[in-house]
Amino acid sequence: MSGKPRLTYLNGRGRMEPVRWLLAAAGVEFEEIFLETREQYEKLIKDGVLMFQQVPLVEIDGMKMVQTRAILSYIAGKYNLYGKDLKERALIDMYVEGIADLMQMILMFPFSPPEAKEKNLDSIKERATNRYFPVFEKVLKQHGQDFLVGNKFSWADVQLIEAILAVEEKIPAVLSGFPQLQAFKVRMSNMPTIKKFLQPGSPRKPPPDERYIETVMKIFK
Questions:
Q1: Which of 60, 63, 48, 54 is nearest to 14 (CA)?
Q2: pTM across the whole model
Q3: What CA–CA distance (Å, rounded) separates 57 from 160?
Q4: Does pLDDT of 1 surpass 70?
Q5: What domains can be seen in the chain, in order of their start residue?
């Protein structure tokens, strides 16, 4: 074992991408195993590796962790990205859960039937611009600090920059009414660990394509 965290998932974003983002933001190198067949997935279940018969799977510190939220909170705590006290942790949790709701819409979008894609894209835009992004625009404006919580880089900042970039891929002008978030995006994108993750050749995965969707359907359906 190299001592690096080992991530088992498909070769695509899905529910593992926030984990890749958080590890990369913390400056942690990791290894990946990509599932390509249903047989690989069934073997993990048979071997008792997946507690709830689900991936993502992250092997870290001698544990085989499943459930994305548990994985992310462990990594955030381990690498000092989870606030200085319970109040800050509660704020981070609230922000992260809100962003996760938006990201769930983006996660499911590629699996929309063709006739529903335009409607679903409108829903993503409406939720982003009217429900989620205004919250973070207001937070950043009110406290005048670079980061969302405690004026210190945290899991919430990582989750937000991931969400901003994911929504922009589909709706390029989505930040036009949010000057604080525009500035936040520039700051986060220039942080050394995140800048490295945004470069070509990093472990960051591209938007889902037809091959990825077919692989998901083949393994999990």
A1: 54
A2: 0.95
A3: 23
A4: no
A5: 6-79+198-209 (3.40.30.10), 86-190 (1.20.1050.10)
